[in-house]
Amino acid sequence: MDKKYGVYICEGCGIGESLDIEALKGIPEEEGLPVKTHACLCGPQGVELLKKDIGEKGINTLVIAACSRRVNFDVFRFDGCIVDRVNLREQVVWSHPRSEFPALTAEQKEDDDNFDRVQMLAEDYIKMGMARVEKITLPEPHKLENLSRKILVIGGGITGMSAALDAAKAGYEATIVEKTAQLGGHANHWRKQLPIANPYDRLISPIVGDLVKAVAASPKITVKTNTVVARIAGEPGEFTVSLKKPTEKIEFDVPFPLPDDMKVDASGKELEAEKLHEVYMEYNKGKKDILTLDPDGELYGAVILAAGWRPYAPTDGEFAHLGLGQFADVVTNHQFEELAAKGKITRPSDGKEAKSVVFIQSPGQGNDKDFDFAGSVTSLVALKQAKYVREDFSDGKAFVFYQHMRTPGLSENFYKSIQQDPGIFLTKGEVVAVTQGGGGLMVEADNTLLGEKIKVNADMVVLGTGMVPATADDPVINLAYRQGPGFRDIGLFNGYADSNFICFPYETQRTGIYAAGGVRRSMTAEESIEDASGAASRPFSAWSPSTAGSLSIRVRAT
Amino acid sequence: MTLDNAAPANGSIMVVGGGISGLTTALEAAEVGYEVILVEKNPYLGGRVAQLNQYFPKLCPPTCGLEINFRRIKDNPRIKVLTLAEVEKVSGAPGSYDVAVRITPRYVNENCTACGACAEACQTEIANDFNFGMDRTKGAYLPHAMAFPARFVICPQIIGTEDAQRCKEACKYDAVDLEMQPKTLDLQVGAIVWATGWEPYDASRIDNLGFGRYQNIVTNMMLERMAAFNGPTQGKIQRPSDDKAPQSIAFVQCAGSRDENHLPYCSYICCMASLKHATYVRAQYPEAKVYIFYIDLRAPGQRYEKFYQKIKEDPNVFLVKGKVAEVSEDPHTGNLTVVAENAVTGQKIHQTVDMVVLATGMQPTAANVKLPADLKYTDDGFIINDFEKGGMFAAGCANKPADVVSCNQNATGMALKAIQTLKR
Predict the structure, then answer these.
(1) What ipTM, to 2 d.p.?
(2) Which helix (H) or strand (E) holds A164?
(3) Cα torsion A320, A321, A326, A331: sign
């Protein structure tokens, strides 16, 4: 751009009273830039002056020394011109009132060592503005050669299907990639699900079947089951995706960075650069490097990561004080749901009816935390499963021991409805031991609302273990990026694929990839469906030409 | 951003409410390329979050996200912002609605430079609603220090008086227009998203907790304003009766929530808000003791759990499971006594403290005044979304009590829902 500069100093809003305008004019004059002043630049005459200079003199690079860029942004916007705002008002005159920072007296001026700080501040800012406009260029949208408007949805559970349906309803094509043989995810193994609509007071049949039907009926959605993402290469808007079967090994599997223990020799010393490279190449033998694009790869514009979660898998001996691993009738909530989905609930040990079931929400041992990765979902799940016991057996009893009943917001209504059931007992309490006794199991709890230690006979005990995000185990997105295939945890995310922003919840650390559902945070089905809409919304604004193509990185740039 | 009033073509989206949810929905839709009209009843954007000092759990300032959003508004010619505007009537069907919007006069025009001369000249003082009446502001005022649009307002009470003339004469830019009239715009839009937000539940209705009777009982939102640097006490948390720095504060959780007599639901944010407030108090007063009386401590999600666990470690923060039955006052000292039963030990607790904060719940604004459109509500006034029907949607706290992250998630999704309506 052939720049023609102009500097304009406004004297309004106290600027003229506080500063030596003539001295300010000297700054651009010294550099040979034309400078004008005006009593009120944002007023009609001021704007007229600017427009005239632009129209008649061809000024196209303006330094406007006046008020903050936060105001009058529409007044000082001129097509095709570079405008830099130098803030003499808020940042100089208003924040450094002459009552506190007096101007130099005539006497003080005589001594060269004295200087007027406020004036100097104003002069420095103008100098900075002039330096800036020299370097500023008008933004050009980053135009992609092959902008794709197809969306890749990783994960075909409730979240993935909802996202694909939302995208399709807005007129876009989506492909769902699902690693198992069928759509539906965990919901396929539920007996019932938590309510998803007002008044939130009763369980409903899983809606997953309806979603699968809707996906099948949508001409804009392609489904690929038994498929995972081997590699995502390219850039946002133009991702080249290589897909494969889950157990396959292909040359476009993404190279992985070396695990830490392979970076050192037998004595623990870090390997030399050359040796490191050799080990890295051997480790990734058979794989194409990250810069080679897969000629058979499919082009996608954005990715919605809806890869969900897996049940927490307790290690050997974990929760031994609660009988897990010792007694067949102590199970996790996930295992209990599978039993319940098959039919009436019976004990794994001997097939007897499980008429008395104890639900334990917190591992205890001095802390009031729920199990890891529980979020506030497991409280609701325990209530749901307690209801199953009552559904199966008219004399069935359920006991829920919790530290905090986590049913926030409107899900409180579901909690209230469960409290009405005379066969379900809910109490805060710390379960200290699960042992054998009374023909089944004996659950001992302390610090309960009943004011005393209590012992409960149980046919089965269910631990409220959590939902581990898929990204805790595996990068999933497998990006062919220098920074590595997955999201970096940096001690913040605990394995979840999430944004660290409060105001921009869908911006993961990788532009163009939006996470939704259980992979982002432990969520109920209702929350996941809503989350899917949000994530599905993001690609459209990121792609829009109106945002000069740079919107998807707006949060980092601003 | 444009502030003009030209009626847009059909195929545009109206967002009612310019808080964080409304802003999010409006910006998402406008950036996809749709014309959006943002209708806000206050003279400024930002709603409730503009009144917050910090967000939990990161303790970051709301102005960060707000300023980013304002910047996006400024750069987008497709968003029209109407402030001091309220929807009067909606008729029509999904894809084609007729909306009457009433604009209340600001009595200040676009010449305003926010110099403040009118406020200096004005002699009337009115209660400052932004600070929940904890201080007063002039009849000519800027709603708050970071108000956007940055333009003064003249309150209707002084119109027609000498004081109004004083304001007009003080203005060097001819920005005061005392002749401004209310007007009604008739607009055609294809979809409407209601992001009408929430208001704090009126704590004076909870008899046993003494709000309104005893001076040193404040609500959680009032404490938030006190802690804010641009608030009534410039960031200092102090007792209303004598400005004393509190050495002990009690937080009463579920003040009005989870209660058949008041709000039957859980207001979602109050546990986290009180934990956040505990950090405010402890940062200002390292020796102070904080007592939190709760039913269940709800810190939903892993991030919030971490925050809770960290605050639990503070030896000066005491968490007691026990619903507060009563708050009484010692009139000589202004101190308050909180009576609760420790649910686990069965012990009755009488805790005397310098100050009490009621963690009052949130009510959707539509709880008390229904919106002039064909919408379905829960018994508590939350708008129910009907995605099959489409056309109109609720975002943010108008839909359910939620924290800022959830509101933004929801609002982002509602932008897409609105777009789907236009594409039908």
Answers:
(1) 0.92
(2) helix A158-169
(3) negative
Least confident of A2-16, A152-166, A436-450, A534-548: A534-548
Chain B interface, mutation test: which of A499, A502, A527, A556, most B Cβ atoms within 10 Å?
A502
What is the DSSP track for B323-380?
-EEEEEE-TTT--EEEEEE-TTT--EEEEEESEEEEEE-EEEGGGTS--SSS-EE-TT
A373 in B contact zone (CB under 8 Å)? yes
Same CATH fold assignment for domains A5-135 and A320-465: no
A71 → closest Cβ in B111, B150, B400? B150
Q: Is A490 exposed, middle or buried (0-12, 13-18, 19+ CB in 10 A)?
A: exposed
Whether B55 sits inside 8 A of A502 (CB atoms) is yes
CATH of segment(s) A5-135: 3.40.50
Average pLDDT over residues A377-390: 97
Which of A494, A534, A546 minimises the CB distance to B31? A546
CATH topology assigned to domain A151-248+290-309+470-547:
FAD/NAD(P)-binding domain (3.50.50)
Contact between A308 and A162 under an 8 Å Cβ cutoff? The reply is: no
CB contact under 8 A, A70 and B297: no
Q: Are A75 and B3 in contact (CB under 8 A)?
A: no
Instruction: Provide the pLDDT confidence category of residue B4 given band limits of 50, 70 and 90.
Output: very low
Nearest CB partner across the interface for B302, out of A413, A416, A496:
A496
Question: Which residues on adjacent β-strands are paired with residue B341?
Answer: B348
Mutate to test the interface with A, among B78, B305, B399 (most CBs of A within 10 A): B305
Task: State pLDDT tens for residues B154-189.
Answer: 999 999 999 999 999 999 999 999 999 999 999 999
Residue of B nearest to A502 (CA): B405
Mutate to test the interface with A, among B259, B265, B307 (most CBs of A within 10 A): B265
pLDDT, averaged across chain A: 93
The band of A545, judged by pLDDT with boundaries at 50, 70 and 90, is low
| Distance between CA atoms of residues A151 and A160, nearest Å | 11
Instruction: Say if CB B81 and CB B185 are below 8 A apart.
Output: no
The two tokens of residue B71 are 């910047």
Q: Is A475 helix (H, G, I), strand (E, B) or coil?
A: coil
Structure tokens at B64: 């960060």
CB pairs under 8 A between A and B: 176
Tens-place pLDDT, residues B94-148:
999 999 999 999 999 999 999 899 999 999 999 999 999 999 999 999 999 999 9
- 3-state secondary structure (DSSP) of residue B294: strand
Residue range A167-222, pLDDT digits in tens = 999 999 999 999 999 999 999 999 999 999 999 999 999 999 999 999 999 999 99
Chain A residues with CB under 8 Å of B68 CB are 503, 554-555, 558
* Contact yes or no for B65 and A501 at CB 8 A: yes
The yes-or-no verdict on residue B2 having pLDDT over 60 is: no
Instruction: Please tell me which residue of chain A has the smallest CA distance to B416.
Output: A537
Per-residue model confidence (pLDDT) at position A450: 81
- Whether A551 has a pLDDT exceeding 60, the answer reads no
What are the backbone angles phi and psi of residue B410, rounded to the nearest 5°? -60, -45
The CATH-assigned architecture of domain A320-465 is 3-Layer(bba) Sandwich (3.50)
Contact flag B413-A408 (C-beta cutoff 8 Å): no
- pTM surpassing 0.90? yes
Q: Domain limits of chain A?
A: 5-135, 151-248+290-309+470-547, 255-289, 320-465
Chain A closest-CA separation from residue B390 CA (Å):
12
Residues B255, B221: Cα–Cα separation, whole Å:
13
What angle, rounded to 10 degrees, do the helices at A117-135 and A21-30 form?
Answer: 30
Put simply, the answer to whether A406 touches B296 (Cβ < 8 Å) is: yes
